[in-house]
Amino acid sequence: MNSRTPPVRSVLDDEVEPVSRRPHRHDLLIAAVGLLGGLLLWLLGLRMQNGRLFEASWTGLVPLVPMAVAESMRRTRPGAALATATVLLAADQLTPGNIATVLMYTDVVYAAVVYGSEAAARRIPVISLLGSVALTLGLLPRLRPADAVLVGVLAGLVTFVPAVTGAGARGHRVAAEAARLRAEQTALLAEADRSQAVAEERSRMARELHDVVAGHLSAIALHSTAALSIDDPATSREALAVIRENSVAGLAEMRRLIGLLRRGGAPELPGAAPRLSALDALIEQSRGHAASSGLSCVLDDARDGGALPAPVELAAYRIVQESLTNALKHAAPGTVRVRLARPGALLTVEVTSVFGVRPGPRTPPGSGAGLIGMRERAELLGGTIRAGEERAADGSAVWRVRAELPVPEGTERGR
User: Fold this and answer.
1) What is the mean pLDDT of the chain?
2) Could you tell me whether strands 346-354 and 397-406 are parallel, antiparallel, or unpaired per DSSP bridges?
3) What pTM was estimated for this model as a whole?
4) CA distance linking residue 31 with residue 88, whole number of Å
5) Is 279 left (phi over 0), alpha (psi -120 to 50) or beta?
């Protein structure tokens, strides 16, 4: 059983050692039926045996009444009920006897195995069998062998058979409880898997939405800030043109994403998964957005030109896209360099920009969701990503984003 599955015994303990010690209503009913049946047999004058120590018929009622009391405790105090009932059964052998007393005793033995502790459930069948054999052997010197064997068989029917029956019933109860717990555990695991899948899908949607829209919104914020801070009609017209271009492009991306969500994100839809072949257009777009901020964008693709798996290309594209967006918002004037390489089974993506304070209008500070999204994309592929301030070869401060994405052998497109 799974280590997270609750132990079976913890559930059965509610029956072995219940909180309430009051007799169960079913046990009270069984005890009342046994007592009334014994009284009826006594009134009819039916007895089990003759020649006992106490010959008066009423003496058979002496073990009957407390046996009914023990029967009422069969579920709440099975151990005490069995010990009391055993003494009463022995006392019944000194009287004319009552079959109701014997029948209630067999039920107490059965209940002691079913509702008692695990140790008692293992021991009672063995003790009852050994007791029946010992009784038979002890009577052999006093009775004829056939009579001794008959007494031993009767003792086994009264003790061993109910104990074995109770053991079987307890085994079925344990198996049923274990099956129920496994079913509950399976349902819990299924719900956990469903919740995890929903959370992962939400994270994927959040990354995609941020990556495709953040760049356009950043450009809109930057140029609108410039238009508001610089009182120049030509600058305002240029900024409005860029704002319109990015708002239209952002709206188109939003419509595409909504369409993907409504259609279940079908991968065959056009433009659903950007490829690295589209980086030239992305770099060109970034150049237009960043020109007014003194930034220039350069692409250095040092790969061998081979096609990569779609998830790897999508992750690399989005990492470059988010890095360019961050450079547009925060980088100091200078060159933003994008470099791709593929040493062996790794695709490396590196984006560097000048680190420093940029003069002029700036966009509001980000929330850090972009860096989180890049890290998640890399980790989903088993890769790594680092982002932070470093020193370039000439000693200048740069902000470098470097991602290493594994490329599984034989998974390139077209193979």
Assistant:
1) 81
2) antiparallel
3) 0.50
4) 15
5) alpha
The answer to whether 45 touches 58, Cβ cutoff 8 Å, is: no
Q: pLDDT tens, 65-102?
A: 999 999 999 999 999 999 999 999 999 989 998 999 99
CB 111 within 8 A of CB 81: yes
Domain ranges of the chain: 8-186, 189-406
Among 354, 403, 339, 342, smallest CA distance to 374 is for 403
Amino acid identity, position 262:
R
> What's the mean pLDDT in 347-366?
74
3-state class (DSSP) for residue 245: helix
Token pair, residue 109, equals 């033995």
Give the number of other CB atoms < 10 A from CB of residue 127. Answer: 14
What is the predicted pLDDT for the residue at 33? 94
Hey, CA dihedral for 376, 378, 380, 382, is it positive or negative?
negative
Residue whose entry in the numeric block shows the structure tokens 């319109």: 244
pLDDT of the residue at 251: 74
State both tokens at 286. Answer: 């970034």
Q: Which helix (H) or strand (E) holds 325?
A: helix 310-330
Confidence of residue 113 (pLDDT cuts 50, 70, 90): very high
Give the Cα separation of 330 and 341 in Å (integer).
25
pLDDT band of residue 278 (cuts 50, 70, 90) is: confident
DSSP-assigned states of every residue in 209-222: HHHHHHHHHHHHHH
41: which residues sit within 8 A by CB, 6+ positions away? Answer: 98, 99, 100
Task: In whole angstroms, give the CA distance from residue 175 to residue 11.
Answer: 12
Pick the CATH number of 189-406 from 3.30.565.10, 2.40.10.240, 3.40.50.2300, 3.55.40.20: 3.30.565.10
Handedness of CA 112, 114, 116, 117 (dihedral sign): positive
Structure tokens at 3: 């280590």
Half-sphere exposure of 406 (CA within 13 A, CB side): 9
280-325 pLDDT, tens digit per residue, is 888 888 887 777 777 888 898 888 766 788 888 888 888 998 888 8
**Cα separation, 232 vs 227, whole angstroms:** 8
Q: In what order do the strands lie in the sheet with 295-301?
A: 295-301, 334-341, 346-354, 397-406, 384-391
Which residues face 295 on adjacent strands?
Answer: 334
- Consecutive H or E run containing 353: strand 346-354
